[in-house]
Specification:
Layout (H helix, E strand, L loop, with lengths): L3 H12 L4 H8 L3 H17 L15 H14 E5 L5 E8 L3 H14 L5 E6 L2 E8 L2 H4 L17 H9 L1 H12 E12 L2 E13 L3 H13 L5 E5 L2 E7 L2 H10 L5
C-alpha cells in the first residue's frame, strides 16, 4: 500500500524524535501502520554492526563515498543528538545545486544502506538527513561548539582513506564550501583595452584546520594554491594557475 521511500521517510521522522501522532499527521499514515513498521525495523537496526564498533574496528567499505561525505561534513555538516542515543547527520545543500543534493544522498546511502535518508526543506537549502547511533563513530570530529573554534584533525584511519581517495575528499570540500568562478581583467594592448577571462576555484572556511586539510590534500595531487584574504581574514584558498585549474576541472568541476 505504501512505497519503500515513503516508509523510509516515515521512519526517519520517528528517528528524529517526532511522536507517532505527529508523524501520522504529517504523512497521512495510520498510527498502527507506523508502529508496526518501527517494531519490524528496530531489531534489524539493533543488530546492524558498525565498522568502527567492530572488533577490530575497520574503515567503511565504500571508501570513496566516505571521503566525499567527510568533505561535505567538514564544510556544511553537523551531528545533532536525538532521543534514545541516536544522532542525526545533517548536511546543508543549497537548492541552487540539485546535483549536489543527489550526490550527498547517494554518499550517505552508500555508507549506511540500511538507514533512511530524508530531505528537509529550509529557506534556500535542503538538509539531507539520516539518523544512526553510529554517526559519531564515523565522524569523530563531532564535539560541542563551532568547528572553527576548536581543533579539527583526522583520525589515522580517516587520513588513510583521504590519502587513497584525495579527489573525492577535495570534491566534497568544494561542493560544501567552495566554488568555481570566472574572473576577468583588462589590459591595454596597442592602445586598446582588451578583456581577459580565466576560471579559478575558491575554498572558503573559517577553520584554519579545515583549510589546512584542504591545502595539504591539494599538495598531494599536484594542485598549486595560495591563500587570499577576505578583508583582514585569510579564509580563502585560491586555485588559479591554468594547469591546476585544469586538474580541478577534470576531477571536481563546477557545482550543478
Amino acid at each position: 500500500m505504501y512505497g519503500l521511500e515513503r516508509r523510509k521517510l516515515t521512519l526517519a521522522l520517528l528517528d528524529a524524535g517526532h511522536s507517532l501522532n505527529s508523524v501520522s499527521k504529517q504523512t497521512g499514515i495510520s498510527r498502527s501502520a507506523i508502529r508496526d513498521w518501527r517494531m519490524r525495523v528496530e531489531p534489524i537496526r539493533r543488530n546492524a554492526e558498525c565498522v568502527r564498533c567492530a572488533t577490530p574496528p575497520t574503515a567503511p567499505q565504500q571508501a570513496s563515498a566516505y571521503a566525499y561525505l567527510l568533505g561535505l561534513y567538514l564544510g556544511d555538516g553537523c551531528l545533532s543528538a536525538q532521543p534514545r542515543g541516536v544522532h542525526a547527520l545533517r548536511i546543508a545543500c543549497a537548492d541552487a545545486w540539485p546535483g549536489l543534493i543527489e550526490s550527498c544522498e547517494e554518499s550517505i546511502r552508500a555508507i549506511h544502506p540500511d538507514n533512511a535518508v530524508c530531505r528537509v526543506r529550509k529557506q534556500g537549502c535542503t538538509m539531507v538527513t539520516s539518523t544512526s547511533k553510529h554517526w559519531p563513530c564515523l565522524f569523530p570530529q563531532h564535539a560541542p561548539g563551532k568547528k572553527h573554534e576548536r581543533r579539527i584533525a583526522l583520525e589515522p584511519w580517516q587520513q588513510e582513506i583521504v590519502d587513497a581517495h584525495p579527489w573525492a575528499f577535495i570534491r566534497g570540500l568544494i561542493h560544501s564550501d567552495g566554488c568555481r568562478i570566472t574572473n576577468w581583467t583588462e589590459k591595454v594592448i596597442g592602445g586598446e583595452p582588451k578583456r581577459y577571462e580565466y576560471p579559478r576555484y575558491f575554498f572558503t572556511n573559517k577553520s584554519e584546520d579545515i583549510r589546512t586539510l584542504f591545502s595539504d590534500t591539494l599538495d598531494k595531487v599536484g594542485v598549486e594554491w595560495k591563500v587570499t584574504r577576505r578583508g583582514k581574514d585569510p579564509y580563502n584558498v585560491s586555485v588559479a594557475r591554468r594547469a591546476s585549474v585544469a586538474l580541478m576541472d577534470l576531477h571536481v568541476g563546477p557545482k550543478y
